[in-house]
Amino acid sequence: MNIRLMAAALLASVAIPAFSANATDLEVTHWWTSGGEAAAVKVLAEQYNGLGDNHWVDGAIAGSGSTATPLIVSRILGGNPMGATQLNTGRDAEELVKAGLMTDLTDLAEKEHWKDIIRPASLLASCTYQGRVFCVPLNIHSWQWLWLNRHVFEDNGMKVPANWDEFAADAPKLREKGIVPLATGAPWQVDGIRNVMQVGIGGKETYLAIYDKKNADAVKNPENRKVWDAFAQARGMVDDSYSGRDWNVATNMVITGKAAGQIMGDWAQGEFGVAKQVAGKDYDCLPGLGFHALLDTGGDSFYFPKNSNPDITKAQLELASMLVSKETQVKFNLAKGSLPVRGDVDLTAASSCMKKGLEILKNPDNVLPGVTQLIDPDTRGQMTDLGLQFFSSKMTVDEAIEKQTAIFKQAQ
Predict the structure, then answer these.
(1) Is 132 helix (H, G, I), strand (E, B) or coil?
(2) Domains (ranges, CATH) in the chain?
(3) Where is the signal peptide (predicted)?
């Protein structure tokens, strides 16, 4: 598919806006449908509707980003663009931007000094193409967390684990008690586990060598072998019904004590919050799996597809401005469990887990670009397939390392 040629034809032909007669209605697509996510979306809608004549028209898409992103892209390419859309911060919209299908936000970004207030700088850089800004980062999401039900361990006479090794050592005891050691689902959640281990177990140097430098030789170093060894441990900790399970269902297994832990991004905090769970009392969190207190700073960004209605364009810019405002940053991220992209906001109401993340962010050396920011969708797809194949079979660590080496020999 030649996206650029298709885009040129579409931009020349699209003359009818994809909205109601009210030109200030703005359809916003996203994949935030769990309890915690819905609460966070409600914050955005209320903030936007409170600006005046604007009206947030919710376009929730059930499923994960891997389900929603192709549908979002298809609509834009099909000449039926939404007013705004959530996408992962990174390279998911790269071809659409290159094709000229996204609204240029540069003038707004310069007027509001986004370069000075958005941190880390890599987030805004991921929204920038040829010096122009095409999206607004909304939050900082990191995958690098192991969530634990404290009561599961304490009520069974076990110490709450401080790292992955201690957690893995407790797995047989948990099974004896009828508790699933590790709650998860497939496919993207399994891929997430392996990526978390790439940082938490393998460390920063190996992660960047492989994912940033695309150094295939680094795949064979001892630290990367430890990653696959830990991933092999994880495949022995799940229940037989994990395939197809939604992430928030897995989180609920931890909340209710059916499972002891879950490797999941910090958006899981939203689910604990809805369940009235208290960090440090009911649940705990281990950044970097208790080893490497590093955060990969991916997250959510909003893009604004080009359209032919100047009123929609005006509404788009008003939403973009609102998303980085102090008030929105605080209210939304407290509900979502994510970290704000601004470092000048008051988060005294944050949970102890969120405060751990904020403390880590203070040191730039602890911050890493996320996988979606470093490798293209094709390479990500190959790594996802490899992780799923390994997780659901008896593939050896040696076989996995050989396959990963082949993938990164051609990665971009």
Answers:
(1) strand
(2) 25-142+297-343 (3.40.190.10), 145-296+368-411 (3.40.190.10)
(3) 1-20
